[in-house]
Specification:
The chain has 215 residues and is mainly β. The longest helix has 26 residues. The protein is elongated.
Length: 215
């Protein structure tokens, strides 16, 4: 029950954050597309990004690989998407993997147009998490699992042809994982920093059959 209450509270905070973002966009002159306007309703969207970094010193080296995340969504109307996604991260030290994490789950994303080429987007993720990490007290690998709840805003730039660049600039998230040896571990992220900034790309795909009137 304790973890359920925490989950419900976090989802409520995330929902209020997205609602606040949409209200602020209205004050900035943003608008949501009407159902009878030309828009992406009924289309699919794929998105994601891949990151790699490596640091080498005279004594050791470390590297990290991550996807943040890779997903597919469906436009239930001209402004809102629902979908599934998957993310992976791995850290290595001296070519030995010390941490790797998988997460997958569902997401919801509302949006507000800011002019013709810009869009303010909110996204909420609910993920199941699993992976392996090096134990702190011994040179061994532990299995862990848990869940992550995350909400964040993005600015999108429409490039044409269904392509868009997405810039994430803040995050509110909670990650809870557990191992048999150590029990539950919690971590939180809130605010704007280098770790909450990210860039991705998306592509809208239209599989609907076009009528002759559309040609």
């Amino acid at each position: 029950m304790k973890y359920l209450n925490t989950t419900v509270f976090s989802l409520a905070v995330a929902g209020m954050s997205l609602l606040s973002g949409n209200m602020n966009a209205q004050f900035l002159g943003g608008h949501r597309l009407k159902s009878d306007e030309d828009g992406p309703k009924g289309q699919f969207m794929v998105y994601g990004s891949l990151d790699y970094s490596k640091v080498t010193t005279p004594s050791n080296s470390s590297s990290s690989v991550s996807s943040a995340p890779l997903g597919v969504g469906y436009f239930i109307n001209n402004n809102d998407l629902i979908g599934v996604n998957y993310a992976y991260s791995q850290n290595s030290v001296n070519h030995n993997v010390v941490y790797k994490q998988n997460e997958t789950g569902i997401w919801y994303s509302p949006s507000v147009m800011l002019g013709k080429y810009f869009v303010l987007i909110g996204q909420v993720d609910a993920h199941y998490v699993w992976g392996q990490q090096q134990a702190a007290a011994a040179d061994a690998i532990q299995n862990f699992n848990g869940f992550r709840l995350r909400a964040y805003p993005l600015i999108g730039i429409l490039l044409g042809g269904g392509w868009a660049l997405k810039f994430k600039f803040a995050e509110l998230s909670m990650l809870q994982t557990k191992t048999k040896e150590e029990g539950w571990t919690k971590s939180y992220v809130a605010g704007i920093s280098g770790s909450t900034f990210g860039v991705g790309i998306s592509k809208n795909l239209d599989f609907r059959k076009k009528s002759r009137n559309d040609n």
